[in-house]
Amino acid sequence: MKHVFVFDPDKCCACSACMMGCMDQNDTDLSGGGRCYRQTFDSEIERDGGVYCAYLSAACMHCADAPCIDACPVGCLSKDPETGFTVYDNTNCIGCKSCALACPFGAPRYRRDGGKMVKCDGCNIRVKNGLQPACVRACSFGALTCMTEEDYAADGSGKACSALIDALTLRRK
Amino acid sequence: MKKIAIIGFGCAGYHAAREVRRLDPKAVIDVYSDTETAAYNPMLTTYYVKGAIPYQAMFPFGAPQEAAGRLGLNLFPNRAVTGLKPEERALCFGDGTQQVYDGILISTGASAVVPPLPGLDLPGVFKMRTVEDAVSFKAALDGGTIRRALVIGASWVGIKAVEDLVLRGIACTLADGAERVFSTAVFPETARRIERGLEARGVSVACGQMLDHVERAADGALAAVMQSGRRFEADAVAVCLGVRTNTGFLKDCGIAVNRGVLTDCHMQTNYEGIYAAGDCCEAADIQTNAPRNIGLWHNAARQGTVAGSNMAGDVREFGANLLVNLGHYLGYSFVSMGDLTACRPEDEVLISEDSRFYLCAVRGGRSAQMHQRDRDAGVQRSHQERFYQVHRKSWGGAGSPDRLLAAAAGVSCELYQLFRRETA
Hints:
heterodimer; A: alpha+beta; Alpha-Beta Plaits; three-stranded antiparallel sheet; two-stranded antiparallel sheet; 7 helices; 9 strands; globular; disordered C terminus; B: alpha/beta; FAD/NAD(P)-binding domain; 3 domains; six-stranded mixed sheet; five-stranded parallel sheet; 10 helices; 27 strands
């Protein structure tokens, strides 16, 4: 059953709890130069005499037609047929960064320690076992949810991941 | 029932076959290959020589029979297609037989250029393209008898060969015919930085040296003699002079071929039902709007998928063909998008530098370049620099996705904004 991340920009305040959940789940080593797979953004922009703001939480979008999969020369990346997440096995990763270059969002990260690519896998193992992704579980405001495509289609709220694009348009503070 | 032929079972051929099968479970897909080797990525051969990946990792799709079984293909290994009759959509074979198809994909790839100069067939002279090349180069290096080596051609493969040698402690010279390394791919200042970086690692760089011939020196070593008369003696010579498309079998058959097989946005050639994809073709370059042969793994995958989709009857277009270079060697990373040769002399080159990045951009939306280095990396990493060339189109878009990309690459927000302002 394919899963989608749904982001509601109206409920996000960029508190970064999702990042804490992500880093805890993935044992991200910040002191060793590691970076969280999920990033929050809190942008305030002055324009036309007003201050506008945009709050955003972003990680791998798990694109249906993910360019990183084709770009990887070693075939590290693939789609999990069960969850639909873009997953990876970096055993043969040569650290060439082709995936990061192909990704419109820069989701794949390069881990200096070991010289291999890592990325958000949607907490694939958690979801397969009926749990929520760590970032979703950590979100106190319900801004980030993960649901099956069927539930998403039935939900009808129109709050797709593409609502991220809406989050990028400016809203008056 | 559709009958599809795929000539060449590399990255483009595999992706086309997979797409045809996905869209048309009943189609007959015949795949012809002039080898029985599995589809491999030429880019990985130097990584295999380095020891970064095991032998099997060069074959992302597994054994050919395995891939054929998975996708339901009729695989004909060691059966080279020797000619094409485009009006009849017929393939011709060496034994005089022909086969007619509804759709044909030409995905024959490219081969290493070996100029017809004396001595290039001597033992100890290597080219770097195929799995066989990599195996013999690795065996020679692992043998421990090579003390000094010469790499001819500052190509992206050439610089990887240099890395393979340096990491084994083999004294190495990099020679190139042009006045500077990567003369068509990087800004002159970037080329000088690359040269300085190589020299700091003990590599001797000799530019402006065109090879005349290779001969056996008196002591049994090889000697590469340049047109200038200069001699380079070495135990091994790696020839990395670029690649040539495998299109010889199409000569005079009517299929339009320039450097590669010319294709339209559907990856179709000048004959309906006959497609080309991958390293053997030319597709529209979004920077110059002219057809261009850009041999990249990602391009081959996308072009093959588009061609497969069209052969199966689901019309799709190939959207983006842009020159991209990725080079990683000796702790350096080089990434570029866009083609410097499309820049005009009057284009203004903007340069910006901080503790981590060195940026070059060409005003006018033609090309841009970014170069990154780590100041805080300490002595051991003092030569670790990363070069980026970024085509402005990919950098100056709607905003945040670019910024996410920049953040992922480690570009500071301030520098990103500076860059945006300067190239806006």
